[in-house]
Amino acid sequence: MNQRIGYIRVSPDNQHLDLQRETLKKAGCRAIYEEAFSGNSRERPKLEQCLRELRAGDSLVVWRLDDLGRSLSDLVMTVESLEQLGVGFESITEQIETTGAAGKVVIHVFAALAEFRRSLIRKQTQPGLAAARARGRAGGRKPKLDDQQVREIEELLSNPDMRVADVARRYGVSRTTIYKYVGVVVPQH
């Protein structure tokens, strides 16, 4: 039996679910999962629970597209994973339904736009990185220890009574950083 299952997401400061709930009920949803969280939150337990319940032939129904995805690429990935499971997707407000050809085309356009956006970001980032390298700047974090400090640490550790933990504390770094810079073998416990 194919079922329609609804999912509603609202931000914690906007708890008005009545319109969304009624709309999903009118759309034939037999179960509706509701969740309140901020858009930045990675944890969406109700959505995960909802997705686990869906079977091939079912449809996931949302009130708006942004209920399902935090970003365009997130939305596309979720809808594509539904498609692979044989589950349809419907957004009532945007009138998109992936069980039909027109809805599938819209999702593919969204996927192309998401990929285009990623490509644009890469293209805009590359010249900046190249210019920084030309000026002698390497990417990544600034080194924790300079060459002089590394030489001092090597000299300190040449004393068998000197403990790595004491040297690390003196230079304000972790023992792991000391091991990384001076090649000290990590003691086995």
TrEMBL record:
Pfam families: HTH_7 (PF02796), Resolvase (PF00239). The keyword DNA-binding applies. One of its GO terms (molecular function) is DNA strand exchange activity. Residues 3-136 form the Resolvase/invertase-type recombinase catalytic domain. InterPro entries: Homeodomain-like_sf, Resolv_N, Resolvase-like_N_sf, Resolvase_HTH_dom, SSR_resolvase. Coiled coil: none annotated. PROSITE patterns: RECOMBINASES_3 (PS51736). GO terms for biological process: DNA integration. Keywords: DNA integration, DNA invertase, DNA recombination, DNA-binding. Belongs to the site-specific recombinase resolvase family. This is Recombinase.
